[in-house]
Amino acid sequence: MRGVLSSLGWIAFLALAVLVLLFYNVSYLPQQGRVARLQQEISMWTQQVTELTDSLQRLTSVSDTIFNRTFRFDELFVSAESLVLSPQGKLLLRDVAPQLKALDVNFVIIGHTDGAKPPVGSPYRTGWEYSAAAAAAVANELITLGVGAERLLVCGAGDTKPLVKKGSADARLLNRRVEIAVRSR
User: Which of 7, 51, 62, 118 is buried most deeply by CB count within 10 Å?
Assistant: First the structure.
């Protein structure tokens, strides 16, 4: 009887081992192959995303702007209403003038405003006139500093290209600005 029980124990053990091997071969190995295929697919998609990201960075970093300096009105002018260059403003433009003279290209001076109406009694009726006058004041100083007038283009953008949303005093300071740009196109 003991021999029979021992034999049955071995048979049960071997049957269990066969079942484990069948489970492993039928269930586990295909899952492992599927996991390997999914890992390859994830790797492929990750590589494509990386390539697209790199391509996008190259496209956005290739700008048509060669030189760009932006000055706020409070950096350039005695007061934003007068558009008279302050000593600090003249000094800032004196620092930029040699760089502009060294570039043998035309450039544009763009005045921007904050959308607020020009002050009462101001000679400027609209933000367009006000922004163009600010850009013209900068252009005149650059001409005084030896930059050729034939290389300048003065533009007034008004409030069409704000840096920040309108509203606060800080937003007005940032949006009232003069931009000097040299573009390749």
Answer: 118
